Amino acid sequence: MNDITTPQKWDRLKRPSVDYMDDKLGIPFPVLDKGFIRIIDYMGDEAAICQAARVSYGKGTKSVSEDRGLLRYLLRHWHTTPFEMCEIKLHVKLPVFVARQWIRHRTANVNEHSARYSILANEFFFPDAADIEAQSKTNHQGRGGELPEEMRFGMTDTIEQVSEMAFDTYEEMLTGWPWVDDTGELWEDSGDAHPHDKKLGMARELARMVLPTNIYTEWYWKVDAHNLLHFLRLRADPHAQREIRVYAEVICQIFENWMPNVWEAFVDYQLEAVSFSRAEIENLLLLVDKDRAAQQFVHPSMSRGEHKEYLKKLGVQDAE
Ligand SMILES: Cc1cc2nc3c(=O)[nH]c(=O)nc-3n(C[C@H](O)[C@H](O)[C@H](O)COP(=O)(O)OP(=O)(O)OC[C@H]3O[C@@H](n4cnc5c(N)ncnc54)[C@H](O)[C@@H]3O)c2cc1C
């Protein structure tokens, strides 16, 4: 049997680390009025993705430029599992209505603050009056169209009042006030001031139902780089609701610093790329001057391999 501890055969490894990520560990990036994202931990870097991809044909790490080419190739051809080798764990504070959209992304691990166990803090999201818009007439799911300034400010005031009232009711439910006195007897005169005693009221798991969805919650969210990019593609998109998009935009910034080449490839091949239907392609190909395409114009960002793939898509024989 082979001795797997033989030093000549196995190199000792160091944990991959990225200076930017280490510098930012634990520091909150503010989002919305009271929310944040903090990096709690991360695993892996771009070299780890290349290392995983190359294990399939037994080659180790190569030069930085070869790594960049490989990363771009993997992303362009939807080789997803190497990207799943890297993970990030975030601590996120977010309004419940944003969390409801976020939690739909099933390919992550989540631990949320329990409102059955703990009493929620009196923290609600209040939108800026500038972000309040009318229901869009073209997109049933979105906003679009101005509302009078007076109305927008009036609405923000109302949101604050309703939230405050809801939190007062939540506390009343928890304490039992104004229904009982401090001995637990039913309180006859509900108009009198009365000390709150948290033991006398409704269970937390029930009392929370009176709270609106702009109350803040918190969770730890762990996801791998492949599924994180999928999340960002959907939630950093202009079609996503602004209040989740601003979180996605902060994560985009983190990702770009964590894995700049992967980020560049993601922007080139997914975020800013479009796909065409079969009919659209057939139409487009009628317009392409194949001879010209074969002879000329190599986009400066394209590698030789990429240019070949591009010509193939156009049904053009490589000029070589
Ligand atoms: C702009 C926008 C509008 C939306 N509107 C609505 C709406 O009106 N109503 C609504 O209900 N949702 C809505 N959603 C949520 C959306 O339908 C998805 O649930 C959400 O974006 C998560 O995407 P996902 O399933 O691809 O992600 P993940 O859950 O992270 O899954 C990633 C991928 O893994 C695979 N996968 C995961 N779990 C399974 C499984 N059980 N079986 C098979 N494959 C699986 C799929 O390929 C999936 O794409 C909206 C999302 C966006 C971005």
Secondary-structure blueprint:
Layout: H1 19-24, E1 29-31, E2 35-43, H2 46-54, H3 64-76, E3 87-95, H4 96-102, E4 108-112, H5 149-175, H6 204-207, E5 216-224, H7 225-235, H8 242-258, H9 260-271, H10 278-287, H11 290-295, H12 304-313
Antiparallel strand pairs: 1-2, 2-3, 3-5, 4-5
Helix pairs in contact: 2-3, 3-9, 8-9
The structure holds flavin-adenine dinucleotide.
Flavin-adenine dinucleotide is lined by residues 104-107, 227, 230, 234, 239-240.
Write a structural description:
- The chain is α+β, with helices and mostly antiparallel strands and 320 residues long.
- Helices cover 41% and strands 11% of the residues.
- It contains twelve helices and five strands.
- Strand 1 and strand 2 form a beta hairpin.
- The two termini are 50 Å apart.
- The structure holds flavin-adenine dinucleotide (FAD).
Task: Give a nutshell description of this structure.
This protein has 320 residues and is α+β, with helices and mostly antiparallel strands.
Q: Into which percent range does the helicity of residues fall? A: 40-55%
Q: Let me know the largest β-sheet.
A: 5 strands, antiparallel
Distance between the termini: 50 Å
The global form is globular
Order of helices and strands: HEEHHEHEHHEHHHHHH
Structural class determined from secondary elements: alpha+beta
Number of strands: 5
Distinct small molecules: flavin-adenine dinucleotide
Low-confidence segments, given as residue ranges, are: none
Q: Order the strands across the largest sheet as they lie in space.
A: 1-2-3-5-4
Radius of gyration, whole Å: 27 Å
Mean pLDDT: 87
Tally of individual helices: 12
- Beta-strand percentage range: 5-15%
